[in-house]
Each structure stands twice: as structure tokens, then as C-alpha cells.
Amino acid sequence: MYFNWRSAYAIYRREMARAFRTAFQSILSPVLTTSLYFVVFGSVIGARMEPVGGVPYGAFIIPGLLMLTLLGETTSNASFGIYMPRFTGTIYELLSAPVGVAETLAGFVGAAATKGLILAAIILGTARLFVDYEIAHPFLAAGYIMLVAASFALFGFILGIWADSFEKLGIIPMLILTPLTFLGGTFYSIRDLPAPWDAIALANPIAFLVSGLRWTFYGTSDVPIALSLGLTLGFLTVSVVIIAVIFRTGWRLRE
Amino acid sequence: MHEPILSIRGLTKTYRGGTRALDAVDLDIRKGEIFALLGPNGAGKTTLIGAVCGLVRPTGGTITAFGHDLARDWRSARARIGLVPQELATDMFETVWRAVAYSQGLFGKPHDPARLEDILRSLSLWDKKDAQIRALSGGMKRRVLIAKALAHEPELLFLDEPTAGVDVELRKDMWRQIAGLKERGVTIILTTHYIEEAEEMADRVGIIRGGRILMVDDKDAMMERLGTTEAVIALAAPLGALPPEIAAFPVELGEGGARLVYRGGSGEGGGRAEVASLTQALTRAGVGYTSIDIHDSSLEDIFVGLLGEREAA
To answer: What is the separation of C-alpha A66 from the centre of its chain, rounded to a whole number of angstroms?
Structure first.
């Protein structure tokens, strides 16, 4: 199969440029959010909390907070990245270019993974100002963050093609992603929940993501890391298949 | 005849909801020509362009560009086709230079600053290269769209209503630009509902309405075949009936016999010659006249006549 690297790179650069145009907001917003969480949960409440699984509470919440911001930012960024061209009509150029689904996704998702990694670095740097922590598997953590960022960029991409209004664009992250992340063990270990809530919490896929990232940080997790990884890869695969079908049928793109 | 650069057969597009935008369109475009697709709003012009450029999925029919079936070899074909859309759709916050460089990369071309400079200079955009697109005037924005479409050096260029909403001065300028592209060997298909534009620019004209191509012909042949001359002769005294001397001419009396109206000829001078003999015949018949108003029909008259005829049919 033919793959046009130059096209993919052009899309990648453009997506990165789009983020840097709003660099102030892109950096300030996660710094501020993370700081607020650490002031409240890390310092004020965290000081009165027992360590969770041997990890001090302030450090324990870092992977969850990272996941909370990463999922929200990546999804909305990717969804805007494809929705805005549809809205303003500039998508004509992408559709008329000798570019298939592979180049499009490589550009969009590659940029999202890069941005996810930068975002994670900003959050971890901010967290360092409030609490001490060490990352047990830094390369696995970076890899996992990129994998999650890529998966949710794909999800955001689907969202941006599906949405036909700004309201629909905002509603999924707000109504589904944020609650699921909060309930997915961001601030607590699912194992500490009373029955039957510990079992019910595992119906939430985001609990697996938070748990997986926490494993790369501290070596402890609520669910086996293989399960987290498998679920993330599965989600990524399903998203790629859905987008391939969208491109094949032209749904919402070439109607 | 050379193999056409673009060949469309039986192209049909039915939108969801049942609107049939294209109805079995057949069209061949010759290499190196300027082809004007003329039609009222909603005739299917933009859908036709969209189907060739990959914006619209056709319901049926085949499109062959550069000898390749577009349904299969869309990659190589699209790399050689450029599109300037009707809407001023640009990334408002991007600079001119970056927007044009993006187009070059997106279409798979290596970054070539010299080529981009050429394009921007030829479109008088060079001094605006670092400006954000949103800061440009409408005419400048349209030039940016043209520059983007030219960045990958297409051999076949679609211009969808290139001069819509552009003032007279800019329109003339745009025509010069288009003529310049043709000189460089680019085949151009433009849609317009300004007939004047087709008359000025085109080698061949296609008339589309209701998703069907009504007629395709050389512009000059079309004007010759369908053109007419109209002469209105104001008579010194009203006539009750046509005198026998002029009965053979295609004339009729109007305004209670005060005017004699002639319609005939081919639009290529034949009509004017016949009007000259008509005046001599009038003199022989002793009919006096005070003024003669002659005009040859333009493409516009032909177009309106043709559409009206179809409507009545």
C-alpha cells in the first residue's frame, strides 16, 4: 500500500502549529488546573490522608490527574482539529488531496501523541512543585501516555466527524469523559471501595487506564497491567477501524 | 483528436433526501483548453467539480482523468488536479506563506520555496506572505486560494466561480491570471454564472441546468450558430401593413406600425448585411425612417434564450 510521507508530515506540522498558536492557553490551562488540584487534594486534604498501597496520597493522585487532563485535552483538541475544517469549509483541501486515511491519521494522531507527551511533561513538572514522587518505569510511562493520547485523539477524530454542532462537540467530553475519569479511581484506589461498588467501578473502562498509568509510576495497580494495555490497544484498534470505514463510505465527509 | 484530459460518462449524483444534482452527465475536456461551465445557481456546477475533485461521492458513472479511472487511481490523478473552491474557505489564523507551503506538502510535493515565491509573486501576494489570511481583503483571500491550488503545479485546474463577489477591476485582473495559466499549459475548467466571463475567457462552453448538460460547443461556433442580429427601425410614419418590397425579410411591425423590428442573421455579420439591404428596400418602397438601432446577440442572449426554450418545452 502506498503511503505519502510528505502529506502526513504536512498534516502533522499543521496540527502542531495549531497548538503552538494557542500555546499560552495550551500550557497555562493544564498548569493552573493541576496546581489547583494539588493545592486542594495534594496539600490540604492529602496531608490528612493515609498512604494508598504504600504510596503517599499526594503522589498517588498524580497519574489520575494526568489522565484526567490528558483525556479531556486530547479528545477535544482532536475533535476540533477535524470539526473546524468541516465547519469553515477548509476541509475541501484535505479531501481533494492525494491523501488517504493512513496519512490523515498519521498526521493527526502523531501530532496528538506528541502534544500528549508535552502536556504530560507540563503536568509532571507542575506536580513536582507540590509533592515528591519517583516514576518506576519512565519509558513505559511515556509509551503508555502516547498510546492513550493516540487512542483518544482517534476517539476525538470520530467525535469531530460525527458532530454537526458545537454543542454535540462539547457534550461527549463533558457528560461522559469527565465523570468516568473522576469515578475511575483518579483520587482513590478502586480496591478501597466497599462491595459491590468495587466491581461496578470496573465496568468503567477509564478505571483501567488510570490503573495502568499508575502501575508505570509506582508498580502497583488495581487491575493487571496487561489488562489495561490490552483494553487501550483494543480501543485504539476499534477507533482506527471506525475511521477507516468512515473514509471508505465518505460518511459526513463526502456526502 | 487527442485523448481528452478528463472524460466523464454517465455521472450521476443523488443527494440524501432525493435531490438529483447530476443526471447522467457526459463531458470531455481537451488538454490545454479553458472550458466554461455555465449555468444558473443550483444547476449542478459545484457538484460536478466536487465529484471530480473527491469532495462528493458520485452515485453512478465514471470519471477518467489523465487516462486513469478516478475510482481506482484517485491518488495519482488528484496529485495532478487543483481546485479553487467557491467559498472563501481558508485557515484565517495562518500566514499566507505557511498556508501555501502546507498545500505543497499535503499534495506530496517536496518543499520548494523558489516555486512558492514564483506563485506568490505572480499573484501579487509576495509582500503579504507573512500576513495572517484574516487580515486580507476578499480579493486577496481568493488569490491565496489560487496560490494554494497552484502550489503542487496541477495540470488540470478547477475554478469554481473565481470572480464571484469580486469587483470589476479585480475580475479583469483574475482573467489575466487565468489567461497566464493557460499559456503555461494548464487546462482550466471554470464555472460561472457571469456570461461575460465565459465570453471573454473560454475556448469552449458547456451549458448545464438541472444536473444535465444541455449543450457543449466551441464558444465561437455557439455564437455563430445561435447568435442573431436585431434591428429596430423607427419609421417616419406608421405603417398599416408590410409593403411587398420587404415582405421577404424576417421583419414584423411593432408599436402600432411605428416600428419595424428585424430579427435574423447568424450573429457573425450576416445579419448586419441583411439589415443594410433591408434599408435599401425600405427606400425603394418609399418608407421613411428616423433611426436604426442594431445589436448582435451576446452569449447572454443565447444563454437566456436557450434556458427559456427548455423551460417552455
So the answer is: 9
